Amino acid sequence: MINGPRGTKDILPDTVAQWTHVEKVIRELCARYGYREIRTPIFEHTELFLRGIGETTDVVEKEMYTFTDRGERSLTLRPENTASVVRSYLQNKLYAADALVKLFYIGSMFRYDRPQAGRYREFHQFGVEALGEENPAVDAEIIVLAVEFLRALGLQELKLHLNSVGCPKCRPVYRERLQEFFRPHLEELCTDCRSRFERNPLRLLDCKNEHCHALAEGAPRITDCLCDECRVHFTEVQSYLTAAGIPFELDANLVRGLDYYTKTAFEVKYTPLGAQSAVAGGGRYDGLVEEVGGPPTPGIGFAVGLERVLLALEKQELLPEELEAVDVFVVALGEAAQIPAFKLLHELRAAKLSAAMDFAGRSMKAQMKQANKKNARFVAILGEDEVKEASALLKDMKTSEQKKLALKDFVPALCVEVKN
Ligand code: HAM
């Protein structure tokens, strides 16, 4: 037997209802906030992610599913969707229609990481991106949307962590201060952090290694090194969030795993999830459009990990349970009943009722068992006598009442019953 690859999951019929429930909330909310759906390809030119996400990030260095196609092109299964949306925005000139373009997406992403509860190699994100506006009110709108989405699902105990990661003007200054701080401790750092020290020192701040983490506690704060523009922007984002009644926690050690962020960075955590508690993450990326080859264009967005959201909903018993149910189950008894029963099944479905039938010619008892399993509201029974009289028995499974109806009246009569 061949199993699915490690880190992937089948979404089975019994759980699809949970996904459609979450997707419905997403669509309703995005319509209310004015975000329109975009669907981009699952794979892109590898170059897009190298430039967009940054070559020294863990995602690019260790986690991408990259392959060469038959035309000798290097392609990568998208590890995230912001770079793809920006590519599409430029390629399709979406900026021409609107100064501010607001988009959302739902889809699978792929990262080669060590699988564990809440971390998979194929996972699904709901994300939004707002392109073309630098006003901090847009940062706040995006953050409010992330929080309201999780609240709309019924989640409480949410923690919003907020930081500013500066811009290309002020970040080099901070980088240097950070290196000065960590330099005397270089020998004590884990191997990953030693290599991050030169290449991406901001990442030293969120190392999971206990000793590195303890050292990082005393590190200089980026918010003390922001340039005037970034500082004012950050203060305004906070004022807007306060106005919207969204509580937040300033977290100077919040650095995101992707290199494109500027100014606002945030994460929403749902602490009962433990190690993989980040359910949403995002921020501003004012340099990304240019990085991908477009004109300077501000942007901001976030993505929510849907598996993590479902885990959280399961923990809180907030998931809808949808049992399989049909309006009618058709029971056919004996050879002669098979074709009339099939005809009835077809007519019921044509009348927009959900109908099922057993095709294995089982006993009455076995077919009634099946009808129960499928939670049938009514059962139609066709035996030899009924076939001879062109009739069928209609059994109401709630009341156990039974009546005989002429086959020609059966479907209209049932439509009335189902509506009642
Ligand atoms: P990210 O923080 O890498 O950001 O991912 C966003 C969310 O996706 C995480 O908070 C987490 O819930 C979920 N996630 C990430 N990796 C996995 C995994 N291996 N298994 C399960 N869930 C996972 C981004 O992807 C950015 N594109 C977000 C963004 C949009 N920033 C601006 N616009």
From TrEMBL:
One Gene Ontology term from the biological process aspect of the record: histidyl-tRNA aminoacylation
Documented EC number(s): 6.1.1.21
CDD domains: HisRS-like_core, HisRS_anticodon
Domain of life: Bacteria
Record's keyword terms, sorted: Aminoacyl-tRNA synthetase, ATP-binding, Cytoplasm, Ligase, Nucleotide-binding, Protein biosynthesis
PROSITE patterns per record: AA_TRNA_LIGASE_II
Aminoacyl-transfer RNA synthetases class-II family profile domain segment(s): 1-340
Gene Ontology molecular functions: ATP binding; catalytic activity, acting on a protein; histidine-tRNA ligase activity; transferase activity
Substrates-to-products reaction catalysed: tRNA(His) + L-histidine + ATP = L-histidyl-tRNA(His) + AMP + diphosphate + H(+)
Primary localization class, coarse: cytoplasm
Cross-referenced PANTHER family: HISTIDINE--TRNA LIGASE, MITOCHONDRIAL-RELATED (PTHR43707:SF1), HISTIDYL-TRNA SYNTHETASE (PTHR43707)
Assembly information from the UniProt record: Homodimer.
HAMAP family: His_tRNA_synth (MF_00127)
Name listed for the protein in its UniProt record: Histidine--tRNA ligase
Gene behind the chain: hisS
